[in-house]
Design goal:
Elements (H helix, E strand, L loop, with lengths): L3 E6 L7 H10 L7 E6 L21 H12 L2 E5 L9 H14 L6 H5 L3 E8 L8 H14 L2 E9 L10 H7 L18
Parallel strand pairs: 1-2, 1-3, 3-4, 4-5
Length: 192
């Protein structure tokens, strides 16, 4: 199966450091690799309402676009700045919609996503990357639950617009970030 990347931009700022880093990594993909870029802040998504046990599922046109793009992708890249040590609200809202898609048997969401790859890209304004661990764990555990591969998170440092372009270590890692096959995601030993 040819690779098809879905880049989900979860920043509140267009052209921010996380987006710049994601685009630097995407530039390294082989020519002709399908790429879809969606800015989550521009999509009209309702807040998640748990409809698993009898509620009504009410998805609009943008929810359908996002769902179909997700199901079509072999590789889903969540590009979210580190906000309060985790994902942005729009990126978290996207993951919350997975619950709705999981509860619709006709979508076969979990079966379809199993074996595909989840990646993360984030910029943080902190010199110690360990502060991004909650974001990394959120993505890893989501991938593990779904039976997906997890390619890890490309971390860059930057606060003011464009700062990440001075992070030579992040830019060097961006050159090979999508190159290797990601392992199947797993929960930490003994967690389950």
């Amino acid at each position: 199966m040819a690779r098809s990347f879905l880049f989900l931009l979860g920043s509140a700022r267009e052209g921010g450091n996380t987006e710049l880093l994601a685009r630097a990594a995407a530039e390294q993909l082989p020519e002709g690799t399908e790429q879809t870029w969606l800015r989550l802040s521009e999509l009209q998504l309702d807040d998640f309402r748990d409809a698993r046990h009898g509620g009504a599922w009410s998805g609009g046109a943008d929810e359908k676009l996002l769902r179909e793009a997700t199901l079509a992708a072999t590789d889903v890249v969540i590009a979210s700045p580190l906000y309060w040590y985790s994902l942005s609200a729009s990126a978290k809202r996207y993951l919350d919609h997975w619950v709705t898609w999981l509860s619709a048997p006709e979508l076969r969401f979990k079966e379809t996503m199993a074996g595909r790859t989840l990646w993360g890209v984030t910029a943080l304004a902190h010199e110690h990357e360990v502060v991004a661990e909650p974001l990394v764990l959120t993505l890893n555990h989501s991938a593990a639950y779904m039976g997906m591969r997890f390619g890890g998170v490309l971390l860059g440092n930057g606060s003011k617009p464009g700062d990440v372009l001075q992070d030579t270590r992040a830019l060097a890692r961006a050159k090979t970030f999508f190159a290797e096959e990601a392992p199947l995601a797993a929960y930490p030993a003994g967690a389950i």
